[in-house]
What does this fold into?
Amino acid sequence: MSDLNTVPENARDAINFYGGGYENHRMFWDSMKPNGGGRPGGRLADEIGVYFGSFDEFKKKFSEGTISIQGSGWGWLVYNQTYAKLEFMTTQNQTSPWTQRRVPLLGLDVWEHAYYLKYQNKRAAYVEAWWNVVNWSEVEERFIRVAS
Ligand SMILES: [Fe+2]
It folds into this structure.
């Protein structure tokens, strides 16, 4: 995923879509737990403060950016290893942040399949509720592995 140019051109789109779909969802399930939520701690909390101002500002940026994705896609907290910093980004469809040289730390699926059974077309309500199941200790461990 992190070097799609090495993949034969006629397979690139399929690998981007299906490979990204696999990787994104694998992480997505691991990033949630019942009665999750709250806030991250440790170094991740510090770095969120540095790059987003505060946890609340990070949450606002992530929520607004993810809600406003046109069509299907994902909102992400990623680590930019080149500049050693946290960033928010979105991707379309199943594209993984790995394809843009970013390490995914936390992703939110806003394909309609992720929320229509419970939230119908209310993407914003789904995003708001999702914060209550984020497994921050998992995200913190992921961050420490790539940032140290
Ligand atoms: Fe999905």
Summary: The pocket of fe (ii) ion is lined by residues 25, 109, 111, 113-114 (CB under 6 Å).
